[in-house]
Every structure is written in C-alpha cells, then in structure tokens.
Amino acid sequence: MPNWKSWANRLPRFTADAIEAMLLRLEINENDRQAYFYRLLGGLFGWASYLRREPWSEGTGPGAVAELLAIRLCCDAAIAELAPMPNKSLQEMKSTPVSGHTGGLPLPSNTVEDERVLLAFQDALEDGFARRLLKRLLPSPAPIASRPTVQAIFCIDVRSEPMRFHLESLDPTIETLGFAGFFGVAVDWDANGNSARCPVLLRPGHRLRPHHEPATLGLQPLAKHLQAAPAASFSFVEMLGLGYAMGLLRDLLGLGPAPDEDGREPFDLQRNEGYGIAPAVRVDLAAGILKNTGLGSRLARLVLLCGHESSSANNPHAAGLNCGACGGHSGAINARIAAALLNDADVRAGLAARGMIVPQDTHFLAGVHETVTDEVLYFDKNRVPASHLAEFHTLQQRLVEAGARVRRDRAPSLGLRSDDPSLLTALRRRSRDASEVRPEWALARNAAFIAARRSRTRGIRLEGRSFLHEYDPYADSDGSVLNLILSAPMVVASWINWQYFASTVDNKTFGCGNKALHNRIGDIGVVLGNGGDLRTGLSLQSVHDRNGHWYHEPLRLQVIVEAPRERIDTVLKSQPTVRDLIENGWVRLFALDPDSNDVMRRTALGWEEV
Fold first, then answer.
1. Secondary structure element (H or E) that encloses residue 490, with its range
2. Are 314 and 434 in contact (CB under 8 A)?
3. Is the pLDDT of residue 514 over 60?
4. Of 339, 326, 428, which Cα lies nearest the Cα of 379?
C-alpha cells in the first residue's frame, strides 16, 4: 500500500487511544461496535483466545487481546484509507458484499426449523443411549464384602473403566473406586518449572519440589529453550542441521528411549523455603481424600492410589492424553503425595483425633496407569511392609492380566490384531514413534458421567465411555460431597465432552485439522502449514478413524447421579454455573433414587419422568 510507513508512524502510541481513533475514522457507530469487535477477534479466534486466557484466569482486564484488537482495527483503517475501492465512499465500502456474501447474518426464522429437526434427531440419539445405560444400572446393587483384600482407586477418566472392569472380573475380592486423578491434592510441582497438578478450576494451594533438581548437561538446556521459542517451529531442525538427523531418524522409527518420566523424583512434605505442606494442612488433605473418595471406614489392608499418564513422542497435544484433573500432566506425583500423607503416622493421629480411624494394618501404595500400553507402574515398592507383600504380588499379577485384556479389547480400533503375541511391544513402540499421529484414542467416545456406588456399575462392561466417580448417597447426608462432584469433576468432564463433540461435528471451526500438517509454535500451540491462526480443539486423528469415518460419537454428556432429587436441587441452587449447564441443555442430568430406583431427568422446567 502506498504511504504505509508514514501512515503507520502517525498511529496513536497507546492501545486504548488507537482503538478509539480507528473507530472514529472508520465511522463505526456505538450500536455496531460490539458486533464489529467480535468479527475482528473471531477472524483470529485461536490467537484471541490464547491472549485472553491468562487475564481471564487472573480476573484482570482484557490484557493483550486489546492490543490484538487494536492491530486488527488499524489494518481495517489502513485498507479503507490507503487502498480504497475506486469511486466508492467509506459507507459504500462497508456495505459491499465480500466473497459473494450478500451481507448480514441469516435471519433466525430461516434456520430455526432446520435446527429443531436436527435437535430432535440429537435428542433421540441421546435418549436411546441413556435408556440402555440406565436399564443396566437399575437393578439393586449387590452387597460387597465388609472388607476387600485390596482397594484400587483410579481416576474417573473413561480409560480407567475397562481396567477396573477386568481387574474386578479377575478377582472378586478386589474393589475399585473412582475419584478425580489429582486425589484432592492441588499442588504446584516445581521439577522443570512450576506446573499446577490440579483441575484448571482450582489454584494450587501448595508447592513441592524434588530433593534434587534433574541434571541437565551440555547444550541440552539451550536446545530445549530454542525448541520452545515461538519462531522455532520453522528453523529448529534447519539451524541444528545434520547433527539432529540421527535423532529424528531414531524417533521416526520408534527406537528411542521412553519419553521423560514425570513425578518420579524423591520429594519431602516438610515445610522449607516456601515449599512443602504444613502439618495441620496435611491432616486436612488426608481427611478430604478419605471422605471424598468414598473409602470411609471400609479400608482394605492394601490400598492402591493409581493415577494415569500417556507417553507419546513428538506430540504437541500430549497434555490432552494426560490427566485432565492434573492440569494435563501425569498423575504420578499426586498419587505419591496422597499415599505419603495417608501413610504418615502423625497424619493418622490427627485423623484419629477427628474420629477418622485408619486401621494400623492399612498401607497405601501409589501407582500410575500408562494408558497407551495399559501397564501399571508402582512407586516406593520398597516401603511395602513384608506383611503386605502377598497382597501386593497378587495385585501386580491381576493388573498385568487386566492390562492384557484391555489391550486385546482396544487393539482392533487402532488397526492392530487382538491375538498378536507382540501386541504390548507394538504399543510400546507406538508411544515412542515420532511419526505416530494416533498413539491412543484417549477420551474419544466419552458419553456419560456416573456418580454412584461402585456396586451399581460393578460387573457391567461400559466400553470405556463413562466417567465413573464413587458416590455413596447414604454417607453424604449434608450433600457436601455431591456438591463437590457436580461443581468440579462433572464440569471438567462436560468440557472434555464438548471438546470432542465440537471437534467431531465441525473440525474446521472447533478442531485443529490434520496432525500431519501441524507446525508447533513454541509451547503455545499449533498452526496448519506455515502460518495462520492458532488452532484450537482436537485433531482429525483424535475423532476420526483411518478411513475418515467418525470414531467419536457426538453425544452430550449423560450425567447420572445416585441421589435423592431434593439433594441435587440443593446443589443446583447453590451452583448457578452447574444449573446453567443443565437447564440450557449442555449436559443431560438424571437422578437415580437410591431407595426406589426411580429415574427422573432434570430440565429447565424441573424434573420429568424418563
């Protein structure tokens, strides 16, 4: 454009001044400004969302997104003033159709009928799924032995459900429970830079660090810094040249070592230089774990706290495969901290003073479920008492067998043979293969969130489609546990559900396209090809199979709660965000009465029979 440099030099120096000046020069009236701002920011939806995220989480002003808006406004003004259409005024330019668009949005009356028809089909699809699921849950729960030999607490993640099913099928004396995988320990783990190991709804209340910082030698820190720089996606390999070629070849063939292990370092709970957890707070955390996991007074001799993680190579979306309750990280350190708290003699004494008795013969063990290979890794095995080794060895063997069954179940969906004797080896290589665009299916096909006693779902094959959270309505008379479940893990599950839903039905708008075309922008995100907007959502490979067919079935989250309706209503009154999710149709909530087995659905109009 002619005279661009001198024009730009005369722009206002400050963001707010530039926005106001450009609005006046473009003659945008007051009534049109909000829609105009949405159009400008919507044109770079990914970058606008990224720039808005931190100020939103901090509860501050618009932040850098205002600067992006100012830039977009200045670009529009530059086009209008420096490259005007011949013989057209500014008002005529503003009303000129773009790319054949006749101007304006379609009237609601033109689309509402089509939307009603589509919504009717969507409701029918979801009604069918909910009816089939509820029918399987309705029989009265079978009683469980007073004290199981082993209890295993898994994350509520849908990938934990098949492992739990097979583990209990192999050994009826083992009981599994479901709880958000951060195990109630919202911690900032300072190993390689701070990282919040808790749901994004929460803020870490404690800071911990390893005893020894991970060793970094030679040029490794510099290489990692360069790799994470925003401009590095197009120059990193070229800059390092042939020296990086062997590493690339090794990764592409899946021959490299396993990815960095997270949360394995030794740590100390003692307060020191701002790190650690105060003694009184440790008791509070332990009490919350016992209460909210549903363990109560039925503690087994051996209790496994099993987080989960997913190993993959060359994967900018690795956080989406890890534990959502741990902020997209491995759940290993959370499980280890929780086990350390519950094994601590001083903590147990503090619990006893509150009337919460942990049997002397109960030992807590931490582990992590690797969801690509369905193997379980155990921590601090040397601390398992000799008196508990029999239970531990039995648990190890049962989980090896359960993992093998889960691998066989899901092999066909990954294009592998269930009867392949080297299936585990193939999956391990898959986790190290830098060219693998689908190391696992993650949470694809998620469709339900069930908060109920395990006895309601035990022995039922739910096909890895349900988030399972332990909830005993008879042990929660004040509704505090239910309030926590519906306001935190259920909300996070609904976010996950909608991310998969939107990325499936409109990947161009809400997803991030083909993984093979991604270029990583530092530690920020990805773009398609060599530029453009920052892409949000899931890749095509996360929701479609190799033939381009949907693998994820787009269903809204069917939330089933085993609790009296009055208790649920009390929670909804105190949690407007949760009430909005339900009454506006983002999730579908069903109440399963623990005594009568009656089922009713909650809508904007109240409770309706199913």
1. helix 489-505
2. yes
3. yes
4. 339
